[in-house]
Amino acid sequence: MPFEIPDNLHPDCAPIAWLLGTWRGNGHGDYPTIEAFQFGQECIFTHDGRPFFHYMSRAWIVDEQGVKVRDAAIETGFIRCKADGGFEWLLTHNTGFAEIWHGTAEIGTPRLEMTTDAVARTETAKEYTGGHRMYGMVEGDLLWAYDMAAVGQPLQPHLWGRLVRQ
Predict the structure, then answer these.
(1) Feature table: binding site for heme b
(2) Which pTM was predicted?
(3) End-to-end alpha-carbon separation of the chain, Å?
(4) How distant, in Å, are the alpha carbons of 73, 121, 126, 143, 154 from that of 95?
(5) Backbone torsions φ then ψ of 14, nearest 5 degrees
(6) Cofactor(s) for this protein (predicted)?
(7) Distance from CA of residue 134 to its chain's centroid?
(8) How many of the other CB atoms lie within 10 Å of CB of 38?
């Protein structure tokens, strides 16, 4: 799908402009404390001319044939871009977490890497202490991976997916 950089793109957002739009696809998840699973996902990155993107993602569990079984995670937040290519990502989840991430966008390369700076959770949320995420453009698709430290486990792979621009 062709992509055009918006006329009103804030200059600080240029290193991550490739993320803009709606992406859909599938992913895989596992962790020592849960059974492996497959999911579908939609991610939306929007921009209104200010130095941030709004982000929203929703996922659903699918069976072996790719048929939706049930709704799963929802997350939303803001990627606040800095002039030096760095960014801050404020993210909230339906599962009771709020996170602050920091990272860098590699100028001229469609890739983001980030680490949690702070995690807050509600009383009913599971124990979650931190994470690491990577997003990158590969063959025109958005590939991403999320490593998680939670429920007494060290930081390790948890989720990964491949999304196609819509």
Answers:
(1) 33, 126, 158
(2) 0.94
(3) 7
(4) 7, 9, 8, 23, 20
(5) -55, -40
(6) heme b
(7) 8
(8) 16
